[in-house]
Target: Phycobilisome rod-core linker polypeptide CpcG
Amino acid sequence: MALPLLSYSPSSQNQRVAGYEVPGDEQPRIYTTENTLSPGEMDTLIHVAYRQICNEQQMLASNRQRFLESQLRVGQITVKDFIRGLAVSDSFRRLVYNSNNNYRFVQICIQRILGREVYSDREKMAWSIVLATKGLPGFIDDLLNSEEYLINFGEDIVPYQRRRILPQRSQGDLPFERMARYGIDYRNKLPQSSLRPIQRADGLFTQNERFDFATFVERANGPMVAALLLPVCGIIIVMLAIAIGNQ
Model:
């Protein structure tokens, strides 16, 4: 027996109020297949769908779902079906699902599929239970079949961010499509580079200091300069001798 979705409420009274328009604000462009599209327009719609669901960091040729694209182009599937295919694809599972805990993965999917931020931790918990009990495909299906998705996007509209983000320079205020695909906890588990910083001889230069020949000569002693320059001069002499011999 499937567990029912836990109840949760918006975090403020105006969460579900239709957004108001401010003169001069750019409103999101809606991409839809309700009307017949030219090949170029269909290419743009597919590109926007990838950017919304798969994140700018994942938009690589190797991650494209070409079979789904061909089905969408000929009308065998709807935009909603295409979005589902992207969200349950192997690349999405590997790059997003496998690199996050359930709570953050739920937040990412609500941002990209429903086009809004999660209401509260209780909403994360509610959808995390769905993810745990129904798996990734069942969780994605429930999001796409929800009343909220169908009212806002239906079968033919590519999901988009429904509320603008205040222009504050922080990770949380980036557009959803540009937020990192994994959190800090996963990043800290990644293997660190085995390369060690280059050690400068006798502290002639600090790690980030720009090399300057005059400064180098001023700080270095005579024997060190000779030891470093003699091999270079020898190579230059040999190269000149070879060039002269070939003439």
In short: The radius of gyration is 28 Å. The chain has ten helices and no strands.
